């Protein structure tokens, strides 16, 4: 493997170049790439040139560079993201027709939620989540569902790490967060009211695969209007998440039914 | 740049590995990758190992390898595919509510249509197009719109190349195809009846960017039932394509209005 004087392989440097695009939506100049990827301009120039030739990057008429359709194509075609999206989209659409705001599906990547797909009504309220974007697990409904069903080690890592306060409704106390996660497992859904955006409420429910593992979370985001409003969306959300799980081969039983009587969860209390 | 004895760079071999996933939806063993990418097993093994370490590929519990979420994430986040999808999705959703079959958007990649996004009703009819999948331009409604608005050189290349007959309705005669493309430009939409699938009819309209260039085509796919049926979807399809174009900054004028009076196009006649 070819290594630079810094000992890094070509592929390591290439991934650094690709990741340089991660925080922008659009194109970069080679010198911006070199700065963001922390590579000498000559190295960036040479690697970018080769990546353009291979179709992984594309050069625009103004010489700026962006991710090429061919890289998107190979990355999308056999990605687990596509399998999930493909299974989920019809159910997401049905859900979206009912909710008419935002419907999204996300997975756990490290200690973040990575959103795979989103449908939004044209006049929908605000939503900080984006397709292929990340948000922290502890402050989003999708993340709370994924975290609640993640291995204990990961839960401890998140609970023991920095729990940033995005709004005054974000749960940043590990003890309260642990209790919230237990409630998510018990109830089969979560309502995360104004935890990352003071104007929005997220609701999420787990999506299971054929081994009944929680592999994704389905969520809807609605504007914050009153505490009573969002609860109305729970049945259709849970039904859609169960529909996707079933389509993925999960054995859905009555046990996994939601429990809304008796103990209304108050995650934002 | 490190080159193998065959003179190929690391990146060339890596793209060959990534493209090996292109025709499957799912995972591959290292020996399958080596065969598909036409690389020695040792080379495939070493590069796959490094790509797994970098998060570009992921190894499943059974040791099979698949595209990693991280590669999908970097490829999706700043891809032109995402910009287009993000702008188009709300309009696609409105269109989908009206049509309740399949709604999709595609771009020209080489001489193929590459589909970026698709919404499908759960009980929708058959549709051969897939997200991140390719289909030939001459046999699909999306492709005919893109080809009609592509540079003359590309049109000549397609017209002079092999025009495969997918069904007996595929237009394989260059003279008829040229006439059809002129009709697409004149009418502002196309109805491709049973050209790639004898059970399906595609309808497509152009999507323009701020320079008024046709950068994508929006389409709906409905089951073939009668010749009269699909025409009913033209107004809502064209309105949605114009909506996306407007959202992308195109200057939409009355000139680009559809013309349905007087000359009903008969592409499948």
In short:
The structure is a homodimer of 269-residue chains. Chain A is of the alpha+beta class and 269 residues long.
| Oligomer state of the chains in this structure | homodimer
CATH architecture of the largest domain in chain A: 2-Layer Sandwich
The CATH topology of the largest domain in chain A comes to Beta-Lactamase
Radius of gyration of chain A: 21 Å
Q: Tell the overall outline of chain A.
A: globular
- Name the helix and strand elements of chain A from N-terminus to C-terminus, one letter apiece: HHHEEHHEEEHHHEEEH
What's the total helix number of chain A? 9
Helical/strand content category of chain A? alpha+beta
Greatest interface by residues involved: A-B, 65 and 65 residues
Note the beta-strand portion of chain A. Answer: 15-25%
Percent helix of chain A, as a range, is: 25-40%
Number of strands of chain A: 8
Head-to-tail CA distance between termini of chain A: 55 Å
Major pleated sheet of chain A: 6 strands, antiparallel
Topology:
Two copies of one chain form a homodimer.
Chain A: H1 10-20, H2 30-37, H3 41-53, E1 57-59, E2 65-67, H4 69-77, H5 80-99, E3 102-109, E4 112-120, E5 134-136, H6 141-148, H7 152-160, H8 174-187, E6 190-193, E7 200-208, E8 214-223, H9 234-247
Antiparallel strand pairs in A: 1-2, 3-4, 3-8, 4-5, 6-7, 7-8
């Amino acid at each position: 493997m070819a290594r630079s004087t810094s000992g890094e392989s070509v592929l390591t440097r290439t991934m650094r170049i690709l990741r340089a695009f991660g925080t922008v939506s659009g194109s970069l100049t080679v010198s911006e790439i070199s700065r963001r990827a922390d590579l000498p301009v000559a190295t960036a120039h040479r690697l970018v040139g080769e990546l353009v030739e291979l179709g992984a990057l594309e050069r625009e008429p103004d010489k700026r560079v962006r991710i090429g359709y061919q890289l998107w194509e190979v990355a999308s075609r056999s990605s687990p993201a596509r399998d999930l999206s493909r299974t989920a989209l019809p159910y997401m659409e049905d859900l979206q027709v009912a909710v008419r705001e935002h419907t999204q599906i996300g997975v756990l990547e490290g200690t973040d939620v990575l959103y795979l797909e989103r449908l939004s009504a044209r006049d929908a309220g605000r939503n900080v989540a984006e397709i292929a974007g990340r948000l922290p697990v502890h402050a989003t409904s999708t993340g709370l569902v994924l975290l609640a069903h993640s291995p204990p080690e990961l839960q401890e890592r998140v609970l023991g790490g920095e729990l940033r306060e995005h709004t005054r409704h974000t749960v940043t106390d590990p003890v309260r967060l642990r209790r919230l996660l237990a409630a998510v497992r018990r109830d089969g859904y979560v309502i995360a009211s104004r935890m990352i955006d003071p104007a929005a409420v997220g609701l999420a429910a787990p999506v299971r695969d054929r081994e009944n593992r929680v592999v994704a979370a389905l969520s809807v985001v609605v504007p914050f209007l009153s505490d009573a409003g969002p609860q109305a969306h729970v049945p259709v959300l849970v039904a859609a998440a169960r529909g996707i799980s079933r389509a993925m081969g999960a054995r859905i039983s009555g046990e996994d039914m939601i429990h809304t009587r008796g103990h209304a969860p108050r995650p934002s209390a």
